[in-house]
Design brief:
The complex is a heterodimer. Chain A is an all-alpha fold. Chain A is 70% helix and 2% strand. The radius of gyration of chain A is 20 Å and the shape is flat. By secondary structure, chain B is of the alpha+beta class. Chain B has a five-stranded antiparallel β-sheet. Chain B folds into two domains: 66 residues; 157 residues, no CATH class. Classes of the chains: A mainly alpha, B alpha+beta. Chain B: One of its GO terms (biological process) is electron transport chain. Chain B: The complex is composed of six subunits: RnfA, RnfB, RnfC, RnfD, RnfE and RnfG. Chain B: It is found in: Cell inner membrane.
């Protein structure tokens, strides 16, 4: 149980693929122009990460150490291709929105990193869970990044949601005559916002560490006094 | 990554310490190659299988999508022929902004020409090429046009696509409906900033100008060649006689 919690904590925060390890920035920066785009790519990434970790972990006994990387890449690329074709055929509406992002998942090194670091050495169930949790860690970061950029850039949230849920529509947060702020939508905006998010995470971690140190100091002081 | 030690590190270290005989090196190499081959074949087979399975569905939905797009620019009740079958292929036409052959579909009612449906492109969008599909009536008027593919800035220039246009009652692209080739000749088929009658949205004139100019050129070209385009035998290739 604690192992599962550990995996979840690593994926969501401690070793968060983006904020902690700075992985997968290419697709992260390119796609996070709006919440809908960002979360959509994130969901597809979760699926590919869970599946590739599951498959690699199940087959790990047959993969020689020396050629593991080409085999991992082969598995991931094949999986993404299958997802791409299957979605195109059976989930056409979603594919029209996500389709152009799916191939990007292959080059997202988060997938390879988790397969190499975790799935190659751990049982199938745990590996799949780890892949999914790392994916969820990716989703919340890219979702938040998309939300901030969209809000500052065009004053809305969830624009384009009608492509996924036809009855829904974008929420206008800032006044309708908000002129928009182009820099937030363009790539530099992604770097600014991501930088602030990383700073925020470091600040939170720093505070937590300070608290732990303070507690320890108190405890040892109490022990000396006692 | 700190979760687990690499289990194979020891294996590698011991393998390096003990000098391998030549025959065992060869054996290991062959074994590794065979394993890689097996993996490659297995996953290629998987992809091929999924491809075979999905291909018929994809072809059908591509056709459906084409039909849907055409329906958006040309109401189905205005013609009675099988539009997708009544087609001719044009070589790359510069006036349409196309660098690939263009298929042109001819709508007829009771055998009389109604409209031409074809693709065109604006090459000077803010982020490059903007693909359009247009329906132009036999007398040289725009029935309707839609943007089929573009990379304009989200939230700024992408209002040229009515799906992204915030003004749902009167999408920008509908301004072109029913404008004729005479508007092009009169120099009014331009954005207001350039002295024409087409509204542009503040801050994103380039996208609007690209679509406006490209569709103006296309309408004029189609009007000039309309009769010949309708007379082309089915499936035939068109040769541009004069520039």
């Amino acid at each position: 149980m604690s192992q599962l919690r550990n995996i979840a904590a690593n994926g969501l925060w401690n070793q968060n693929a983006v904020l902690g390890q700075m992985l997968g920035l290419c697709s992260l920066l390119a796609i996070s122009t709006s919440v809908v785009n960002a979360v959509s790519l994130g969901l597809a990434t979760i699926f590919v990460m869970g599946m590739s970790s599951l498959i690699v972990s199940s087959l790990r006994a047959f993969i020689p150490y020396e050629i593991r990387i080409p085999i991992f890449i082969l598995i991931i690329a094949a999986l993404v291709t299958v997802v791409d074709m299957a979605m195109n055929a059976w989930l056409r509406d979603l594919y029209l929105v996500l389709g152009i992002f799916i191939p990007l998942i292959v080059v997202n090194c988060i997938v390879l990193a988790r397969v190499e670091a975790f799935a190659a050495k751990n049982p199938a169930g745990l590996s799949a869970f780890d892949g999914v949790m790392m994916g969820v860690g990716f989703v919340w970061v890219i979702g938040l990044l998309g939300a901030v950029r969209e809000l500052i850039g065009q004053g809305t949230l969830f624009s384009g949601i009608e492509m996924i849920i036809p009855s829904a529509s974008a929420i206008q947060i800032l006044p309708a005559d908000y002129p928009g702020f182009l820099v937030a939508i363009l790539p530099p905006g992604a770097f600014f916002v991501l930088g602030l998010m990383v700073a925020g995470r470091n600040w939170l971690d720093y505070r937590a560490n300070q608290r732990i140190h303070a507690q320890r100091a108190q405890q040892s002081a109490a022990a000396v006094a006692g | 990554m700190s979760e687990t030690e690499s289990p194979s590190a020891e294996k590698v270290a011991s393998a390096m310490m003990a000098p391998l005989s030549e025959s065992s090196v060869a054996r290991i190499s062959v074994r590794t190659a065979v394993i890689l081959l097996v993996f490659t074949m297995a996953f290629t087979a998987l992809m091929a299988g999924v491809y075979q399975l999905t291909q018929p569905i994809l072809e059908k939905s591509a056709l459906d999508a084409k039909r849907r797009t055409i329906t958006e620019v040309l109401p189905p009740d205005t013609y009675d022929n099988d539009l997708l079958a009544d087609a001719a292929t044009l070589p790359p036409v510069k006036a349409l902004g196309r660098d690939a052959p263009t298929t042109i579909y001819r709508a007829r009612k009771d055998g009389k020409p109604v409209a031409l449906v074809f693709e065109a492109a604006a090459l000077d969008g803010y982020s490059g090429r903007i693909d359009l599909i247009l329906a132009v009536s036999a007398d040289g008027r725009m029935v309707a046009q839609r943007v089929t593919l573009h990379k304009e800035t989200p939230g700024l220039g992408d209002y040229i696509d009515p799906k992204k246009d915030k003004n749902k009652q009167q999408p920008w692209i509908k301004q072109f409906d029913n404008l004729g080739f005479d508007t092009v000749l009169g120099g009014k088929w331009r954005v207001k900033k350039d002295g024409g009658i087409i509204d542009q949205r503040a801050g994103a004139t380039i996208s609007a100008r690209a679509v406006t100019n490209a569709s103006g050129r296309a309408v004029l070209w189609i009007h000039d060649h309309s009769a010949r385009l309708f007379d082309l035998p089915n499936g035939s290739q068109w040769k541009e006689t004069s520039p």
